[in-house]
Amino acid sequence: MSFPDEFKKYDHKEVLDRILGKSAQDVERALQAERPSIEDFQALISPAAEKYLEPLAARSHQITRQRFGNNIQMYVPIYISNECTNGCVYCGFNCSNSVSRKTLTLEEIEKEALTLHRQEFRHVLVLTGEAPNAVRNEDLVAAIRKIRPLFSSISLEVYPMDVAGYRDMVQAGVDGLTIYQETYDPVLYEQLHPYGKKRDFQWRLGTPERGGEAGLRRIGIGALLGLGNFYIDTFFTGLHGLFLAHRFWRTQVSVSFPRIRPADGGFEPLYQVTDRQMVQGICAMRLLLPDGGLTLSTRESARFRDNLIPLGITQMSAGSCTAPGGYSHQDEGTGQFHIDDDRSPEEISRVIRAKGYEAVWKDWDAAFLEENAS
Amino acid sequence: MDALIIAGRSFHSRLLVGTGKFSSNQAMLEAMEASGSDIVTVALRRVDIDNPDDYMLKHIDRERYLLLPNTSGARDCEEAVRLARLARAAGCEPWIKLEVTPDPYYLLPDPIETYRAAKILVKDGFTVLPYINADPILAKHLQEVGCATVMPLGAPIGTNKGVRTRDNIAIIIEQAHVPVVVDAGLGAPSHAAEAMEMGADAVLVNTALAVSPNPGMMAAAFKKGVEAGREAFLAGLGKQRKFAEASSPLTGFLRDEK
Fold first, then answer.
1. What share of chain B is helix, strand, coil (3-state, %, to 5)?
2. What is the C-alpha separation between B119 and B142, in angstroms, rounded?
3. Which of A209, A145, A65, A205 is nearest to A374 (CA)?
4. In chain A, which stretches have pLDDT less than 50?
5. What is B4-256's CATH topology?
6. So what's the pLDDT on residue A1?
7. Interface test with B, best of A70, A365, A372 (most B CBs within 10 A)
8. B45: which chain A residues are within 8 Å (Cβ-Cβ)?
9. For the residues B77-87, what does the mean pLDDT come to?
10. Can you give the pLDDT at residue A263?
11. What is the pairing mode between strands B202-205 and B181-183?
12. Which of A153, A186, B69, B118 is 20 to 30 Å from A359 by CA-CA measure?
């Protein structure tokens, strides 16, 4: 069974009613559970659990420390193109935005990569928009091969591919995939994606498992918080993560918590996700997926990020720039969104240390995939 | 304490320590020091093996510790073998803690892939220390292909649950011709002592030290636990009995009857 099939079994209104109907007792039971069920997860993200934020955070902290130790794994995004044929209304790359467009050449990509390598980064996330005339699979393969000697782990956050496409990426040396559903509400999804290939909700929903099928080692999912209803999107993100972890038992699932940021185009969030809700979502996800990676990007403020370090987060980006060419100050294009935490990687790693954690720059080795990669 | 002999090499300490999950490299080094350990294991995925300036590699004194690289993260035999060879090519001693854990969730060792990799690596001249589930038959197979130890888990890695696989570990200890190192799941010095009292040759501890608020003090406590357990084993523990046995036997009067 695929996740789109699993997804069909749920009636959204019923799910929301169940979450809103959870009681304090349900929350207490969920907090006590050795392995919380999906029902328990509904209780943990419910309004009834808002009063239990402290015990929820304590549990999340304890599980995370036990499983991942006092480590935060560092990564950085490299945007190689902001050209896009989609019309996602919340995104700075939206093709109707008249912003400067750029696709980096291989030499420019290498320059960016060298800059990041000098900053100690060994885990990178390569990003593009979706523009088949600007970046095709073979262009990505060439880019990955170019930068591969510099990094121990390369993940992609690009347009969805078919299984064969992801196999080509694995062959080239990619070990991870990040793909956000944006929202799990199909009606809203259609409104937010008025045209372009991304409009196909089902195709996107099945993307993480196509990556799993192709043998990717790490798959990251998430909903863009601020688009849809917080309870619905958090619930289905959890359900999706659990599905992927069971189905692809050799692949590590991670969940990101991107909250919508101001971007060119002036989109305003449709749903305000508060800091408290965000913390609740992160900690509840930790209880549901004790071994899952939980990722926090520089979209969030420095203060908020610092305080989230001990609560369940395992991966953080630092010093990020969302514009292609931005690290080596090449003739850069416009960024995807405005980041909030603009501290340097060294500064962030100092903060991590002050919190009693170690910033880990390398936690993978390209040699794992050597035979695949050519 | 009597020496631990692995593959003809003698070690004073029967406590092996890991290097992951610590809050800082300083905390890790303090724990290593306090543990009195002679063998420290390092995940190859965490270090830049070809880089002499790699912090962890640079700060582990190889005169003092045997640096035991491990293949943590390897999903199958081929990946583990590749990693082991890379470590050797980079100048590490040809000792390898073989870990094949395809499931990133419970990190349980894959018996089939571990066995395949062990065979290849032993033939390749490595001293192989495989991490396994507490499976006595697998332990025999690994011993037969020439592994230098077997390292059964006490409980799933990082759980601090102690020697949950006690009955199977007892069988492995009873039957093994190579040292048995109880690896994974030991959360307290009393767990380490328990494994040693059972006759394990050594234990390996990481999470319990790394996530302790005071890793150095915890390492010292584990050192004592291991020593106490070993000495108790050597001294010979009294047997546990179901019924009390009076020091003046109740049937003593029958001794006279021929």
1. 40, 15, 45
2. 8
3. A145
4. 374
5. TIM Barrel (3.20.20)
6. 87
7. A365
8. 152, 362-365, 368
9. 92
10. 67
11. parallel
12. B69
Query: Which pLDDT band holds residue B45 (cuts at 50, 70, 90)?
Result: confident
Q: Where are the domains of chain B?
A: 4-256
pLDDT digits (tens, 9 = 90+) for B188-232: 999 999 999 999 999 999 999 999 999 999 999 999 999 999 999
Query: How many separate helices (H) and strands (E) can be counted in chain A?
Result: 15, 9
**Rounded to an integer, what distance in angstroms lies between the CA atom of residue A29 and that of residue A38?**
13
Structure token pair of residue A264: 């060119």
Please spell the DSSP secondary structure of A85-135, one letter per residue: ----TT-TT-TTS-----B--HHHHHHHHHHHHHTT--EEEEE----TTT-
Rounded to whole angstroms, the Cα distance separating B54 from A63 reads 29
Residue with tokens 């499983």: A67
B97 part of the active site: yes
Tell me the helices (H) and strands (E) count for chain B, helix number first.
9, 10
pLDDT score recorded for residue B250:
73
**B82 closest CB neighbour out of A70, A360, A367:** A367
Which residue, B221, B165, B173, B171, is CA-closest to B196? B173
Kindly report the CATH number that applies to the domain delimited by A70-275+291-364. Answer: 3.20.20.70
* A97-to-A84, A128, A265, A370 alpha-carbon distances in Å: 10, 16, 6, 41
Average of per-residue pLDDT values in chain B: 91
Q: Which two tokens stand for residue B82?
A: 């590749």
Residue A309 with chain B: CB contacts under 8 Å: none
Token digits of residue B159: 């759980």
Calculate what percentage of chain A has a pLDDT beyond 90: 74
C-alpha distance from B69 to closest chain A C-alpha (Å)? 13
Q: What angle do CA B35, B37, B39 make, to 5 degrees?
A: 140
Q: Which pLDDT belongs to residue B86? A: 87
Return the pLDDT at B89: 85
Name B139's Cβ contacts closer than 8 Å, sequence gap at least 6: B132, B150, B152, B172, B175, B176, B180
Q: What is the pLDDT of residue B104?
A: 83
pLDDT of residue A371: 64
Q: How far is A68 from chain B (nearest CA, A)?
A: 6
- Residues 6+ positions from B116 with CB-CB distance below 8 Å: B77
Q: Supply A217's token pair.
A: 């080692």
Show contacts of A2-9: CB within 8 Å, 24+ apart. Answer: A2/A206, A2/A209, A3/A205, A3/A206, A3/A208, A3/A209, A3/A240, A3/A243, A3/A244, A4/A202, A4/A205, A4/A206, A6/A239, A6/A243, A7/A184, A7/A205, A7/A236, A7/A239, A7/A240
Which residues does residue A293 pair with via DSSP β-bridges, in sequence order? A254
Here the ipTM equals 0.73
Structure tokens at B78: 């081929």
Burial B55-82 (b: 16+ CB within 10 A, else e): ebbeebeeeebbbbbbbbbbbbbbbbbb
Four-CA torsion B151, B156, B158, B163, nearest 10 degrees: -70
